Protein backbone atom coordinates (compact mmCIF):
# COMPACT_ATOMS: atom_id res chain seq x y z
CA UNK A 1 0.00 0.00 0.00
CA UNK A 2 1.14 3.51 -0.67
CA UNK A 3 2.05 4.80 2.81
CA UNK A 4 1.31 8.39 1.84
CA UNK A 5 -2.10 7.99 0.24
CA UNK A 6 -4.21 11.10 0.60
CA UNK A 7 -7.61 9.55 1.19
CA UNK A 8 -9.61 11.28 3.93
CA UNK A 9 -9.61 9.39 7.22
CA UNK A 10 -12.68 9.06 9.46
CA UNK A 11 -14.18 6.74 12.03
CA UNK A 12 -16.88 4.31 10.88
CA UNK A 13 -18.74 1.29 12.21
CA UNK A 14 -17.11 -1.98 11.14
CA UNK A 15 -19.33 -5.06 11.03
CA UNK A 16 -16.97 -7.81 12.19
CA UNK A 17 -17.69 -11.09 10.43
CA UNK A 18 -16.38 -14.60 10.77
CA UNK A 19 -16.30 -16.95 7.82
CA UNK A 20 -19.26 -19.31 7.95
CA UNK A 21 -19.09 -22.99 7.21
CA UNK A 22 -21.36 -25.71 6.01
CA UNK A 23 -23.99 -25.11 8.71
CA UNK A 24 -24.46 -21.47 7.64
CA UNK A 25 -24.37 -22.26 3.92
CA UNK A 26 -20.93 -20.64 3.84
CA UNK A 27 -22.40 -17.23 4.65
CA UNK A 28 -20.36 -14.97 6.91
CA UNK A 29 -21.51 -14.70 10.53
CA UNK A 30 -21.74 -11.21 12.06
CA UNK A 31 -20.11 -11.33 15.49
CA UNK A 32 -20.37 -7.68 16.50
CA UNK A 33 -19.90 -4.04 15.61
CA UNK A 34 -16.84 -1.99 16.47
CA UNK A 35 -15.42 1.45 15.76
CA UNK A 36 -12.51 1.63 13.36
CA UNK A 37 -10.63 4.27 11.46
CA UNK A 38 -11.01 4.02 7.71
CA UNK A 39 -10.00 5.63 4.44
CA UNK A 40 -12.92 7.26 2.64
CA UNK A 41 -12.61 6.51 -1.08
CA UNK A 42 -16.02 7.57 -2.40
CA UNK A 43 -19.29 9.20 -1.31
CA UNK A 44 -22.54 9.09 -3.23
CA UNK A 45 -26.22 9.84 -2.85
CA UNK A 46 -28.98 7.34 -3.47
CA UNK A 47 -32.36 8.86 -4.36
CA UNK A 48 -35.63 7.13 -3.53
CA UNK A 49 -39.03 7.31 -5.23
CA UNK A 50 -40.58 9.08 -2.22
CA UNK A 51 -38.24 12.04 -2.82
CA UNK A 52 -35.87 11.22 0.02
CA UNK A 53 -32.17 10.58 -0.37
CA UNK A 54 -29.39 8.93 1.59
CA UNK A 55 -25.66 9.46 1.57
CA UNK A 56 -23.41 6.38 1.31
CA UNK A 57 -19.65 6.11 1.63
CA UNK A 58 -17.23 3.54 0.26
CA UNK A 59 -14.47 3.05 2.80
CA UNK A 60 -11.49 0.80 3.31
CA UNK A 61 -10.84 -0.46 6.83
CA UNK A 62 -7.14 -1.06 7.59
CA UNK A 63 -7.89 -4.19 9.64
CA UNK A 64 -10.94 -6.46 9.48
CA UNK A 65 -9.74 -10.07 9.66
CA UNK A 66 -11.50 -11.45 12.75
CA UNK A 67 -10.58 -15.04 11.84
CA UNK A 68 -6.86 -14.25 12.15
CA UNK A 69 -7.32 -12.83 15.64
CA UNK A 70 -9.33 -15.86 16.75
CA UNK A 71 -6.64 -18.21 15.43
CA UNK A 72 -3.90 -16.25 17.17
CA UNK A 73 -5.82 -16.29 20.48
CA UNK A 74 -5.73 -20.10 20.40
CA UNK A 75 -1.93 -19.76 20.33
CA UNK A 76 -1.88 -17.24 23.22
CA UNK A 77 -1.14 -14.34 20.89
CA UNK A 78 -3.07 -11.20 19.85
CA UNK A 79 -2.49 -10.74 16.13
CA UNK A 80 -5.09 -9.05 13.90
CA UNK A 81 -3.34 -9.68 10.61
CA UNK A 82 -1.55 -7.49 8.14
CA UNK A 83 -2.82 -4.03 7.30
CA UNK A 84 -5.14 -4.10 4.28
CA UNK A 85 -3.46 -3.14 1.05
CA UNK A 86 -5.41 -0.75 -1.13
CA UNK A 87 -5.59 -2.21 -4.62
CA UNK A 88 -7.19 -0.98 -7.83
CA UNK A 89 -9.24 -2.85 -10.39
CA UNK A 90 -9.12 -2.42 -14.16
CA UNK A 91 -11.27 0.74 -13.97
CA UNK A 92 -9.06 2.21 -11.23
CA UNK A 93 -11.65 1.64 -8.52
CA UNK A 94 -10.05 0.98 -5.14
CA UNK A 95 -10.78 -2.25 -3.26
CA UNK A 96 -11.53 -3.97 -0.89
CA UNK A 97 -14.30 -1.52 0.02
CA UNK A 98 -17.14 -1.59 2.51
CA UNK A 99 -20.20 0.62 2.24
CA UNK A 100 -21.23 2.61 5.31
CA UNK A 101 -23.96 5.16 5.79
CA UNK A 102 -22.25 7.27 8.46
CA UNK A 103 -18.81 8.68 9.07
CA UNK A 104 -17.70 10.12 12.40
CA UNK A 105 -15.15 12.68 13.52
CA UNK A 106 -14.85 11.22 17.02
CA UNK A 107 -14.49 7.75 18.45
CA UNK A 108 -17.08 8.52 21.14
CA UNK A 109 -19.84 9.39 18.65
CA UNK A 110 -19.18 6.24 16.63
CA UNK A 111 -19.03 4.09 19.77
CA UNK A 112 -22.59 5.08 20.72
CA UNK A 113 -23.91 3.76 17.39
CA UNK A 114 -21.77 0.59 17.54
CA UNK A 115 -23.09 -0.16 21.04
CA UNK A 116 -26.68 0.35 19.87
CA UNK A 117 -26.10 -2.18 17.08
CA UNK A 118 -24.53 -4.68 19.51
CA UNK A 119 -27.44 -4.24 21.91
CA UNK A 120 -29.86 -4.88 19.03
CA UNK A 121 -28.00 -8.13 18.25
CA UNK A 122 -28.23 -9.14 21.91
CA UNK A 123 -31.95 -8.37 22.01
CA UNK A 124 -32.50 -10.66 19.00
CA UNK A 125 -30.84 -13.68 20.62
CA UNK A 126 -34.15 -14.98 22.03
CA UNK A 127 -35.53 -15.29 18.50
CA UNK A 128 -32.90 -17.96 17.77
CA UNK A 129 -34.20 -20.24 20.52
CA UNK A 130 -36.54 -22.81 18.98
CA UNK A 131 -38.26 -23.82 22.22
CA UNK A 132 -41.37 -22.11 23.54
CA UNK A 133 -40.93 -19.89 26.58
CA UNK A 134 -42.82 -22.40 28.74
CA UNK A 135 -40.38 -25.19 27.79
CA UNK A 136 -37.74 -25.75 30.52
CA UNK A 137 -35.05 -25.96 27.83
CA UNK A 138 -35.77 -22.37 26.71
CA UNK A 139 -34.00 -20.69 29.63
CA UNK A 140 -30.97 -23.00 29.43
CA UNK A 141 -30.62 -22.57 25.66
CA UNK A 142 -31.09 -18.80 25.87
CA UNK A 143 -28.43 -18.63 28.58
CA UNK A 144 -25.98 -20.62 26.40
CA UNK A 145 -26.62 -18.32 23.40
CA UNK A 146 -26.17 -15.20 25.54
CA UNK A 147 -22.91 -16.60 26.94
CA UNK A 148 -21.62 -17.33 23.43
CA UNK A 149 -22.61 -13.82 22.29
CA UNK A 150 -20.78 -12.25 25.25
CA UNK A 151 -17.63 -14.24 24.43
CA UNK A 152 -17.77 -13.28 20.74
CA UNK A 153 -18.37 -9.62 21.61
CA UNK A 154 -15.39 -9.63 23.99
CA UNK A 155 -13.21 -10.82 21.09
CA UNK A 156 -14.67 -8.05 18.90
CA UNK A 157 -13.81 -5.46 21.55
CA UNK A 158 -10.26 -6.82 21.71
CA UNK A 159 -10.08 -6.51 17.92
CA UNK A 160 -11.25 -2.89 18.19
CA UNK A 161 -8.61 -2.11 20.82
CA UNK A 162 -5.80 -3.69 18.79
CA UNK A 163 -6.97 -2.03 15.56
CA UNK A 164 -7.08 1.41 17.17
CA UNK A 165 -3.59 0.89 18.59
CA UNK A 166 -2.23 -0.04 15.15
CA UNK A 167 -3.91 2.97 13.50
CA UNK A 168 -2.80 5.63 15.98
CA UNK A 169 -0.74 7.24 13.21
CA UNK A 170 -3.86 7.75 11.06
CA UNK A 171 -5.05 11.30 11.74
CA UNK A 172 -8.76 12.06 11.34
CA UNK A 173 -9.35 14.43 8.41
CA UNK A 174 -10.86 17.73 9.47
CA UNK A 175 -13.32 19.69 7.35
CA UNK A 176 -15.00 16.68 5.79
CA UNK A 177 -18.48 16.71 7.28
CA UNK A 178 -21.42 14.65 6.20
CA UNK A 179 -23.67 17.73 5.89
CA UNK A 180 -21.19 19.54 3.64
CA UNK A 181 -20.84 16.44 1.45
CA UNK A 182 -24.59 16.07 1.13
CA UNK A 183 -24.95 19.73 0.16
CA UNK A 184 -22.16 19.45 -2.41
CA UNK A 185 -23.54 16.28 -3.93
CA UNK A 186 -27.08 17.64 -4.09
CA UNK A 187 -25.83 20.66 -6.06
CA UNK A 188 -24.68 18.30 -8.79
Largest sheet: 4 strands, antiparallel
Gap between N and C termini: 32 Å
Order of helices and strands: EEEHEEEHHH
Described by the principal axes of the CA atoms, the overall outline is globular
Say how many strands there are.
6
Average pLDDT works out at 88
| Spatial order of strands in the largest sheet | 1-2-3-6
C-alpha-based Rg, rounded: 19 Å
Query: Low-confidence parts, pLDDT < 50 over ≥5 residues?
Result: none
Number of DSSP helices?
Answer: 4
Strand content: 15-25%
| Percent of residues in helices | 25-40%
Structural class: alpha+beta
Describe this protein's structure.
This protein is of the alpha+beta class. The protein is 36% helix and 23% strand. It has helices at 66-74, 107-123, 136-166, 178-187, and strands at residues 9-18, 29-47, 53-60, 87-88, 94-95, 98-100. The strands form two sheets. A four-stranded antiparallel sheet has the order 1-2-3-6. It has a two-stranded antiparallel ribbon with strand order 4-5. A hairpin with a 5-residue loop joins strand 4 (87-88) and strand 5 (94-95). The protein is globular and about 55 Å long. 18% of the residues are buried. The mean pLDDT is 88.
Amino acid sequence: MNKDNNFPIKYAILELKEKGGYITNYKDIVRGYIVSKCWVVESSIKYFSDGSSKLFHKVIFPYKDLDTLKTSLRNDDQYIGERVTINYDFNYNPYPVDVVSKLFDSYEDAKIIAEEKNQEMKNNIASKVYFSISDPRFKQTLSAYEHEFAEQLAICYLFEKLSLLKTENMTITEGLSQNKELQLLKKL
